[in-house]
Specification:
Oligomer: single chain
CATH superfamily of the largest domain: P-loop containing nucleotide triphosphate hydrolases
Structural class: alpha/beta
Largest sheet: 5 strands, parallel
Shape: elongated
Number of domains: 2
Order of helices and strands: HEHEHHEHHEHHHEHHEHEHHEHHEHHHEH
Distance between the termini: 41 Å
Number of strands: 10
Length: about 500
């Protein structure tokens, strides 16, 4: 792609002034329209050292309302960031609806600097193309506009600019030994850039290579591209049928379920109190030791609890953490999203809670709400919950690539046992708060929820993140099965 770029292109001063006077006004207008239509925008600036990223970003910002954008300069990952998947620090900085995020360098450092300087293994940067593409597609599918610029200059031009910066005492600090080292590696970076452009130039997030020898030409090209892409997004929204209410759930499941996965569970399984006490002591001691081992080996752990209302998630979690050091784990209760969370991609709020290496995060409900309650209750559109299966699998795959142990439990009880527990809660003063009108309402939709659970288990049980169905009519049996599974998974993980 780069060899086809004409670096001799220039724009005369008068033509530049004429073009920019209208472009600057247009950009401000489009920012206001995007805000009113709740369109999030991401602008990525990549390019050679001394290609003019800082100057060109500043020119773009001067046409925007500063209350509506955030600039994210991307430096090498710090210690906190290195302890999480590489996309974590970018997921947490994605913009809310109607806002603009501008990245001065970005996630592409993974396949440029980290590749060329051999900071990561080849298999890791090769795998990163897939992770980057799925990251951008998930954001695009959710309505985010992604505009990516690569500022291109020749090796000769880069050297010329370095020398000019060094000749002025007020700018000489901008040229470092690392810059010169990268200059000597121009050929390697050129190849890495070609690979990056080829692997990540997609219909939903295409690259625009900017001929950056002439600043006026580069500025006008960036402004024109920004205007064109935002106008296309606004036009596509205006053509689509505006729905005043959420789409109703399709009566047809994605898969014809001839046999329920849940029905295969043997809910008669149980333990006596003495068996339970013996097993509980054994496994809690193992868990205490495992917590130390995973910290020393820097293994991140995610435990997901999903299940029927009154299936015993709270009591189960309590027994899992009972012997743990509280400095090494966190229980993450998931409720309905708040206004800030609703303004982002639905996975954003979960990426903000991903554990760092060596720590355990236990999710009391999770991102699976998208294909359960949000699906059944029509809180999201059919298109949104259908694509969520892929998005969830991609997210968990990325976490597993980083080395995260993912343990997922579905606590299963039958309707009769749920009814018994509901009534018991109503009669017990200190448990009354646990039963709500919503619980009774959800119970009436047992069949719908069961279909959704079966579909979820079928579509999101993967080799790196399998589901474990926990037969929970017997709370004692369920607790031990969870503890035993937790121990087995982590012992296997530590042996790898």
């Amino acid at each position: 792609m780069l060899e086809k770029v004409d670096l001799s292109r220039k724009l005369k001063k008068e033509a530049f002034k004429k073009a920019m006077s209208s472009l600057e006004l247009k950009i401000g207008e489009l920012q206001r329209l995007a805000r009113s239509l709740n369109i999030p925008v991401i602008v990525v600036f990549e390019g050679w050292d001394a290609a003019g990223k800082g100057t060109l970003i500043n020119k773009l910002l001067l046409s925007l309302d500063p209350r509506g954008f955030t600039v994210h300069p991307t430096n090498p990952p710090n210690e906190e960031e290195r302890l999480r998947p590489f996309l974590w620090r970018f997921w947490t900085r994605t913009p809310g609806k109607g806002r603009i995020a501008i990245f001065d360098r970005s996630w592409y450092g993974r396949v440029l600097v980290e590749r060329v300087d051999k900071l990561i293994k080849k298999k890791d940067w090769l795998r990163s193309y897939e992770e980057i593409n799925s990251f951008e597609k998930q954001l695009s599918d959710d309505g985010t506009v992604i505009i990516k610029f690569f500022l291109h200059i020749s090796k000769k031009e880069q050297k010329k600019r370095f020398k000019k910066l060094l000749s002025n005492s007020s700018t000489s600090w901008k040229v470092t030994k690392e810059d010169w080292r990268h200059h000597r590696q121009y050929k390697k970076y050129y190849q890495a850039t070609e690979d990056m452009l080829a692997e990540t130039d997609t219909s939903h997030a295409p690259w625009t290579v900017i001929e950056a020898h002439d600043r006026r030409h580069a500025t006008a090209r960036i402004f024109h591209t920004f205007v064109r892409v935002i106008e296309q997004k606004i036009e596509s929204l205006s053509k689509s049928v505006k729905k005043k209410s959420r789409l109703k759930r399709s009566a047809v499941m994605l898969r014809s379920m001839t046999e329920s996965i849940l029905d295969k569970s043997d809910l008669s399984l149980s333990l006596t109190r003495s068996e339970y006490e013996k097993e509980l002591k054994k496994y809690q001691e193992k868990i205490r030791n495992l917590e130390h081992d995973i910290y020393m080996k820097r293994v991140p752990v995610i435990v997901i609890y999903q299940g029927w209302d009154a299936a015993g998630k709270g009591g189960n979690i309590k027994r899992l953490i009972q012997g743990m050091d509280p400095r090494g784990y966190e229980v993450v209760p998931i409720a309905a999203p708040n206004d800030i969370e609703k303004s982002h991609h639905y996975l954003w709020r979960f990426w903000t809670k991903i554990p760092k290496a060596g720590h355990i995060h236990i999710f009391d409900r999770s991102w699976y709400g998208r294909v359960l309650v949000e699906k059944v209750e029509n809180f999201c559109s059919e298109d949104e919950w259908k694509r969520a299966y892929r998005e969830i699998n991609e997210m968990e795959h990325h976490l597993a690539n980083f080395g995260t142990a993912i343990i997922k439990f579905w606590l299963h009880i039958d309707p009769d046992e749920q009814l018994r527990r509901f009534r018991s809660r109503e009669k017990t003063p200190h448990k009354k708060w646990k039963i709500t009108d919503e619980d009774w309402r959800n119970r009436k939709k047992w069949k719908d929820y069961k279909q959704a659970v079966d579909e979820m288990l079928f579509r999101t049980s993967t080799p790196h993140a399998p589901w474990t169905i926990v037969e929970a009519n017997s709370k004692l049996y369920a607790r031990i099965k969870v503890l035993r599974t937790f121990v087995d998974v982590l012992e296997k993980r530590l042996r790898q």
